[in-house]
Amino acid sequence: MAKTGSIEPVGRLHAILGLAEEAPAADIARAYRRLRAHVESRAQTASDAASWAGYEAELRALARAFEVRAGGEVDPGESEAGSGPRKRRLRRWAGRAGWSLLGALVLASVLFAVKHFGGGAGAPAPARVAVRSDPAGARVELLGAEDEHVAASGPADGSALSVPEGDYTLRVGHPDCPEAWQQTLALAAGELREFAPQLCQGEGRLVIRSNVSEDRALVDGLDVGQTGSEIHSLRVGAHQVEVRKQGYRPWTGKVVLRRDEEITLNAELEPEAGQSAGSSTPAASAGSPAAAAAPPPPQPPPGASAQPAPQRSVTGGAGGRTALPPRTGKGGSKSWHDAIKSGLVADYDRNGSRSLDTREEIQSIACSRWQSIEASYETGGLAVDMSHLYGFDGSSAPANTLGITPAMRGYAYDRMKQCGLKTRS
């Protein structure tokens, strides 16, 4: 007969234990304890939330059936074999049908779902960082906080980079901006962080002068008037400068301005073929008195380009930059590069390949030669080291820079370090 208020019939316990209804109370208690211990053991080794919940339901049903059979009293064998603590624990389990049990089930379900479905093999979801720079064209690097290794990199175009959770340094650099933007981050699993850094901030000042009058200066393609003492306030970063005058070869160059810096460019224009300096009229014909009196044109120094470079010097601004060696052009310009390349190939190309393509050729370049080249390069006012601009440190650069083939750039980089040139390592 069922206990008042219970939903479990008396015969349910006997059926669960496999005993007859007339079995003695001591046999029922012993069988009950054995079955309970077995179910508890299975519950402790459950591999998922559903199985664990099923075992808990079996234990509650078993406890209710036993209480119905015992009339709410402790069975006579409960004092034997030290079963008192188990009885009290069982009653606690059977009585927790409210929020405690619901909370445990929810927690177990969440942990199971995270383990089996959250990122595969228990791995946490990666953190993500998206950067969109102003101006466009910058690149992003996420550096590990401990050893500054590059954990991820890519364009700063708004696309997300994925990395494991942890501490990082976010660095954003633009080839036309002298300084990189960076920030330290603590990224959590599954987090998405977005940034919109503004690079090349602030202004610098530029003065453009030349060796002719009535010329025109252009900055980034915009006509800014004649050269002279006028100061042009420009955004920090790289700018293309051109000076023109009819009858002269155009002068072109590139300058990188830093915040609050002032630079003076001195452009030297050369007359076009058939023109004399300071005049736009054709030169005197051969055999005329004027032609006979004219001095012969200057010859380029050994190793220099056959075509003279238009620019000779860059001065002023923070740093007090000095004049360039004659006829090499502004340090880092195309005319400068071509002159240096021609000289290196002429002096050190031993196999007639018209380039420096062997280790022996690279090693034969004297340190004094490298140091002279770097000193000449630095007068151009560029914000990056020569070894980086021309790709010797592994950065992107055109083929055959300074006459050295791509396969030999690494050896040239080692030689530069041996000679004390500025390098990144």
Topology summary:
Blueprint: H1 10-17, H2 25-44, H3 49-70, H4 84-95, H5 99-117, E1 127-132, E2 139-144, E3 150-155, E4 157-163, E5 166-173, E6 181-187, E7 192-195, E8 203-210, E9 216-219, E10 222-225, E11 231-235, E12 237-244, E13 251-257, E14 262-267, H6 289-293, E15 313-316, E16 321-323, H7 334-348, H8 359-363, H9 367-378, H10 386-389, H11 409-418
Parallel strand pairs: 1-7, 8-14
Antiparallel strand pairs: 1-4, 2-3, 2-5, 5-6, 8-11, 9-10, 9-12, 12-13, 14-15, 15-16
Structural write-up:
The chain is an alpha+beta fold. The chain has four domains: 10-117, no CATH class; 127-195, Immunoglobulin-like (Sandwich), CATH 2.60.40.1120; 203-285, Carboxypeptidase-like, regulatory domain (Immunoglobulin-like, Sandwich), CATH 2.60.40.1120; 331-425, no CATH class. It has eleven helices and 16 strands. The chain has helices spanning 10-17, 25-44, 49-70, 84-95, 99-117, 289-293, 334-348, 359-363, 367-378, 386-389, 409-418, and strands spanning 127-132, 139-144, 150-155, 157-163, 166-173, 181-187, 192-195, 203-210, 216-219, 222-225, 231-235, 237-244, 251-257, 262-267, 313-316, 321-323. The strands form four sheets. A five-stranded mixed sheet has the order 11-8-14-15-16, with no helix packed on it. A four-stranded antiparallel sheet has the order 3-2-5-6, with no helix packed on it. A four-stranded antiparallel sheet has the order 10-9-12-13, with no helix packed on it. Strand 5 and strand 6 (181-187) form a beta hairpin. Helix 1 (10-17) crosses helix 3 (49-70), helix 2 (25-44) runs antiparallel to helix 3 and helix 3 (49-70) packs across helix 4. It is elongated.
